């Protein structure tokens, strides 16, 4: 009987620990109804300072930053317009949410990248996208998205989007973090400062040092 009771206690402790770890993996829960960020504050905390709630109005919760398409006249043919608490949507502070408008020229690419602190859900408003992510076993999960489709990119995994339509495309991304983070794979490896030693990249990618140096020049 004692052994059975001990087993139940251990199982209960493990369940609590697992549940706690899961909860802590996301943004902290808010302790107030809202906390509209004071973007003028220079105080650095794990989050953003709130403005005086007495000064907040309904308009503070409205966001109009996605009305216009982003400028896709660049090498990748894409543009990301943010809707984040710390950038231009203060009402999202403490709400565990972030958004972005993604615009793609014909053939436009959102290059392979990761969001270390958030899962991303992509909603296609216009066009056709070839998307996919790679899991930690290096298995690739590609698909084609059309207008009205949703797709989930799991937290922290490398993913991308490519416009394969005959014209521009447009999508909205949502994140379950007010600060999901962004790490572009190519930029991180070939554009790091100070730079990663050429020998590391030569060995990792199996390419000549001349190619490594050429790629670095692009960043």
Automatic annotation (TrEMBL):
Give a yes or no for keyword Amino-acid biosynthesis in this entry: no
User: Which part of the chain is the Cupin type-1 domain?
Assistant: 64-213
Q: Which InterPro entries does the entry mention?
A: Cupin_1, Germin, Germin_Mn-BS, RmlC-like_jellyroll, RmlC_Cupin_sf
Signal peptide segment: 1-28
Places the protein is found: Secreted, Extracellular space, Apoplast
Q: Does the keyword Metal-binding apply?
A: yes
This protein's superkingdom?
A: Eukaryota
**Gene3D superfamilies assigned:** Jelly Rolls
- Short name of one Pfam family for this protein? Cupin_1
Instruction: Could you list this entry's UniProt keywords, alphabetically sorted.
Output: Apoplast, Manganese, Metal-binding, Secreted, Signal
Major place of localization? secreted
Record family assignment: Belongs to the germin family.
> What protein does this entry describe?
Germin-like protein
């Amino acid at each position: 009987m004692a052994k059975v009771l001990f087993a139940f206690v251990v199982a209960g402790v493990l369940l609590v620990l697992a549940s706690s770890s899961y909860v802590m993996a996301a943004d902290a829960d808010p302790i107030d109804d809202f906390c509209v960020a004071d973007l003028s504050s220079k105080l650095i905390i794990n989050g953003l300072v709130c403005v005086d709630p007495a000064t907040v109005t309904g308009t503070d919760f409205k966001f109009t930053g996605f009305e216009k398409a982003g400028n896709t006249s660049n090498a990748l043919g894409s543009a990301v317009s943010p809707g984040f608490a710390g950038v231009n949507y203060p009402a999202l502070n403490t709400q565990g949410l972030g958004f972005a408008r993604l615009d793609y020229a014909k053939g436009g690419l959102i290059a392979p990248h990761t969001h270390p602190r958030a899962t991303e859900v992509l909603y296609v408003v216009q066009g056709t996208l070839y998307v996919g992510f790679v899991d930690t076993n290096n298995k690739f999960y590609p698909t084609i998205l059309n207008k009205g489709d949703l797709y989930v990119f799991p937290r922290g995994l490398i993913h991308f989007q490519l416009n394969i339509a005959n014209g521009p495309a447009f999508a909205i991304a949502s994140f379950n973090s007010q600060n999901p983070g962004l790490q572009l794979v190519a930029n991180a490896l070939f554009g790091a400062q100070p730079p990663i030693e050429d020998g590391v990249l030569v060995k990792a990618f199996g390419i000549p040092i001349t190619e490594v140096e050429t790629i670095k020049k692009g960043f």
